[in-house]
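name: query_chain
kind: protein
chains: 1
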Amino acid sequence: MVNGSRFAVNVRYGLFTMPDRKTTRTKGADRKRQLVDSAATLFVQRGYSQVSVADIARAAGVTAPSVYRHFDDKQSLLEQAVLAGVDDLEACTARALRDGNDAATLISTVCALAVQRPQTASLWRWTSNYLTVEQNKQVALRTREVIGQWAAAILTDRDDLTEREAVQLAWAILSVSGSLTVHHTRMSSARAQEEIEKLVRRLLTLSPATAPTLDTAPVISGVTRSRRDEILDAAAALFADRGYSDVGVDEIGRAVGIAGPSVYKHFPSKMAILVAIGYRSGARLDAGVMAAYGATDDPAKLLAALVDSYVDVITSTPDLSVSFNNSSVLAGQPGATDLLDIQRRYVARWIDLLVEVDPSLKRDQGAVAVHAALSVVNDAVRMRRGAQSPQFAARMAYLMKGVLAI
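structure:
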């Protein structure tokens, strides 16, 4: 009773302030969004499986128990981060198209979002393996709705395109706008936005239906395949379908028709299998490089040949996509350092050639363009978007060359 009386006196004379419920709710919502943003950034930078709740808490400047006051677990954080990205895309699109289907306003608004919140356009594509079927279905439906609106805006200025072509260009725009997450640039936000907008405008001039046939490398038959090759094939297919972290060595063995422990006769660990997949894809890309340099020394033709080779490799086997998608898993692993260096040198070769084709380009501009072009096909293959179409590879190569202006 005494405590109750003291409380009443304190309230009466202003010695105690009741919390403002609206302010408390606002602070809670702000904290929740801060955690979502921190999680999204880490998931894109390191990969979902390489990030812990403690990492997210540290990045947000809070304790791990604070995270659990807002989210049940890391997977629920991922779901909210992906949905927040879709929310941003929807809001951005609605804002840009408020006064009609103006493609120019849409592109400017989308590219601004890509620089301010780069994970918005890329998080789902990197982490869809870790969402449930129902969650992926919800995100896919909402994203396709956004893409449909973008396609309608594109068709306003390009009545020569079919709806399918406009949709394909819209997906490519999403990939280009999200490509800043796959590499580091020291560009200012203003310069980065300018470069991304320039690349997107190039896409808007293209007509995917006119893509020329892609010349693919001949299939070599009659080569004896070893058990090691069979293991790599099975592992690559499983990693591509479900992600590296969710596949066990026993499953890889079953896919080949051997017991799990027998896999260790050929590879010391699952990581060693992933590294070997990376080296195998690198060897295929190197073969394409050698063939290109054996045919011409013209930088534009060389770069075009490397585009064709890259598309051929990534669409004919899951190896390259698996290796690229798991770069964050490979980072720092024994035996993977040389592989990551090979990948960086390969991309650097593209940048060198592009700057040689257009000497007015600075190297950081070339890097943005190359990573944007690679993202067009990497994203499409990862999400299996139209990959079964006979024209898929040819159209991917055409769009990539369009982004690079070659």
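note: Residues 1-26 have pLDDT under 50 and may be disordered.
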